[in-house]
Write a structure and sequence with these properties.
With about 100 residues, this protein is mostly helical. Helix content is about 70%, strand content about 0%. The chain has a domain at about 45-95. This is Rpn family recombination-promoting nuclease/putative transposase.
């Protein structure tokens, strides 16, 4: 319990906690991570990037549907979303108004 109130890794009694704190606090790059940790970080970033891209595509599709300027087929091709997804978005938008 005292380790949680320590000011630094050197003051910790638990060697494992101290080493992990050093690893994450004093690290300048991912070079110090183990291979498994580095792969996990890379996988997490890739997932986050893809989720972010999907959110942008959905946001653009919602705006295009709300503007009613393009047919759903065109929006589907431009935003790389299925017609089913777009129809669902359209029904949600029309239900709100």
């Amino acid at each position: 319990m005292n380790d949680f109130f320590s000011k630094g890794a050197d003051e910790m009694k638990n060697e494992v906690l101290g080493e992990r704190l050093r690893l994450f606090k004093d690290r300048d790059s991912l070079d110090e991570l183990s291979e498994v940790d580095a792969r996990s970080v890379a996988r997490g970033r890739a997932i986050g990037i893809e989720e972010g891209r999907r959110e942008v595509r959905l946001s653009c599709a919602k705006k295009l549907i709300a503007a009613n300027l393009l047919p759903l087929e065109t929006i589907s091709k431009v935003c790389c979303l299925s017609l089913e997804e777009l129809e669902k978005i359209k029904s949600n938008i029309t239900n709100l108004t």
